[in-house]
Amino acid sequence: MPLEGENVILREEKEEDLDLLVELRNNLDTQAWSQRLPPDYTLPMYRQRFLERKFSFFRTDGRFIITHKSSEEFIGTISYYDFQPRFSATIGIVIKKEFWGTGVAFDAQETLLKFLFLELGIRVVRIWTQSGNERAVKLAQKSGFRISGKIRNAIFLKGEFFDNLIVDLLREEYFTFHPELKDNLSLLD
Fold it and tell me: What is the SS3 assignment for 57?
């Protein structure tokens, strides 16, 4: 079942999305990481990843394609992984460069956060990024995330060292940030 934001839809990955996912992953601007330079993700690799996904009632991840609500245009991808039921998850987002600064990344992030906190009952959501990716840091902070840790000079990108950052958002911080929503799992009520 797709998740709906203000302007975006988060829907399940389909096999016909794989070419676009490979393109995003191999783009140094959208990838923003340096571990696999030059990027070498191939369509067969993504197809294998897609086909090996098995059904489970106890999934530890969710991978979504972000599409524009009105045009259904492919915008990017957002996912959660390392899911620990009722405790934690890590999220990641990749947006096509032509959509940077349009608000769709924030909408997609908020849509996934709402699902994780309200529907899955998560206690904490984390994002790994790097200090040179100012867009990702600002996007996270816009939703209330705080930098909670860093590994100094862990990333070498475009001739510079950057810190590897972990940012997180606790359940009570999310609901403080969203007073219009009710935390039905709160111990304080």
Answer: coil
SS3 label, residue 154: strand
Mean pLDDT of the chain, nearest integer? 89
| Domain extent listing, the chain | 3-177
Q: Which residues contact 59 (CB under 8 A, 6 or more apart)?
A: 83
Residue 35 has a pLDDT of 52
DSSP-assigned letter for residue 67: E
Architecture of domain 3-177: 3-Layer(aba) Sandwich (3.40)
| CB distance 31 to 94 below 8 Å | yes
Q: Which SS3 state, helix, strand or coil, does residue 168 take?
A: strand
- Quote helix, strand, coil % in the chain, to nearest 5: 30, 35, 35
What is d(CA 101, CA 171) in angstroms, rounded to the nearest whole number? 27
- pTM of the full structure: 0.89
Q: What is the full DSSP assignment across 83-137?
A: EETTTEEEEEEEE-GGGTTSSHHHHHHHHHHHIIIIIS--SEEEEEEETT-HHHH
Q: How many CB atoms lie within 10 A of CB 145?
A: 26
